[in-house]
């Protein structure tokens, strides 16, 4: 937490659980809106290491050891 204070960073969390159960269509609407923002360049997720599906154990080790920066991606197929 000190790192957040020193860098003057805000952390915001959202608990979707019960709300999404009451409004199931909302998840699809939010996903569509986020995809639109990403397509326009407003949302740029940090992509970290990319692993083929066969290396899922290594990907999990990266997460577990906290070595991964950004999103860890499992490639399901070539393309």
Helix-strand blueprint:
Elements: H1 2-7, H2 17-22, H3 25-39, E1 47-52, H4 56-64, E2 71-75
Parallel strand pairs: 1-2
Key words describing this protein structure:
alpha+beta, 2 domains, single chain, 79 residues, 4 helices
Q: How would you explain this protein's 3D organization?
A:
With 79 residues, the protein is of the alpha+beta class. The chain folds into two domains: 1-44, no CATH class; 45-79, no CATH class. The protein is 46% helix and 14% strand. It has helices spanning 2-7, 17-22, 25-39, 56-64, and strands at 47-52, 71-75. A two-stranded parallel sheet has the order 1-2.
For the residues shown, what is the average pLDDT?
84
Contiguous helical run count: 4
Estimated helix fraction: 40-55%
Which regions are unreliable across 5 or more consecutive residues at pLDDT < 50?
none
**First-last Cα distance:** 40 Å
What's the total count of β strands? 2
Strand content: 5-15%
Overall geometry: extended
* Rg result: 17 Å
User: What structural class results from the helix and strand content?
Assistant: alpha+beta
Task: Please indicate the count of domains.
Answer: 2
N-to-C order of helices and strands = HHHEHE
Largest sheet: 2 strands, parallel
Major β-sheet strand ordering: 1-2
């Amino acid at each position: 937490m000190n790192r957040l204070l020193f860098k003057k960073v805000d952390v915001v969390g959202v608990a979707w659980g019960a709300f999404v159960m009451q409004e199931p269509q909302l998840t699809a609407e939010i996903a569509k809106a986020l995809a639109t923002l990403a397509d326009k360049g407003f949302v740029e997720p940090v992509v970290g290491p990319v692993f083929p599906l066969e290396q899922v154990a290594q990907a999990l080790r990266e997460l577990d050891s906290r070595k991964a920066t950004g999103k860890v991606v499992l490639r399901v197929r070539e393309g």
